[in-house]
Amino acid sequence: MINYLHGPRGLKASMSRSLRIGLAALTVAFAAPMVAAPQIALAEVPALKKIAMVDMQRVLNETKEGKKARADLESSSKTKQEKLDKKRTKLEADASKLGSLKGAALASAQETLQKESMELQSMLMTLEQELGDMHNRTLESMYKRAQDIVTKLAKERSVDLVLVRDSMTVIYAKDGLDITDEVVKLYNGKHS
Questions:
Q1: Cα(30)–Cα(44) distance, rounded to whole angstroms?
Q2: Which terminus of the chain is less hemmed in, N or C, by CB atoms within 10 Å?
Q3: Rg of the Cα trace of the chain?
Q4: Rounded to a whole number, what is the largest CA-CA distance in the chain?
Q5: DSSP conformation letters of 137-161
Q6: What CA–CA distance (Å, rounded) separates 166 from 53?
Q7: pLDDT digits 0-9 by tens, 92-123
Q8: CB 185 within 8 A of CB 159
Q9: Is residue 109 within 8 Å of residue 98, measured between CB atoms?
Q10: Residue 165 near residue 55 (C-beta atoms within 8 A)
Q11: Is 0.70 surpassed by the pTM of this model?
């Protein structure tokens, strides 16, 4: 905007001041990120001489303890599932009888059926929780034991790094780096 009150000299001074303020603002705007930007720390990667890999899923599936744990979980699940199926079958039979009832008898039967249905859902949720807890405890225990075996084996062989072999994390590995078979053998020897 032109400042007509101060004449051409005022116009020049006003533009000069606006230009200086604008340049100062730009300088601050561009300099602030440079000053405030965190410094990138460069870390040196230590030289690794030996690397190994373990497929923990195989350890869990192929060890005697893992096979027994899976069989126990399946047996427990099957037993509890049979109990749930009996209750569900009874509910379905009771529900099919509702058509022949009327009035107060129908209302009472529906209320009972709804209560039993909620009990069945509660039993199902409890079953899932119990099986999940059993599964997690078993996995945690076995994983810890396998970890101890892997650590001992790695120290004995002067291995610098042991990776968990998984199709999502290890795309390629040279033959001979996988020590899973040895871990399974040692695990079976120690925890059978």
A1: 31
A2: N
A3: 36
A4: 104
A5: HHHHHHHHHHHHHHHHHHHHTT-SE
A6: 9
A7: 888 888 888 788 888 888 899 899 999 999 98
A8: no
A9: yes
A10: yes
A11: no
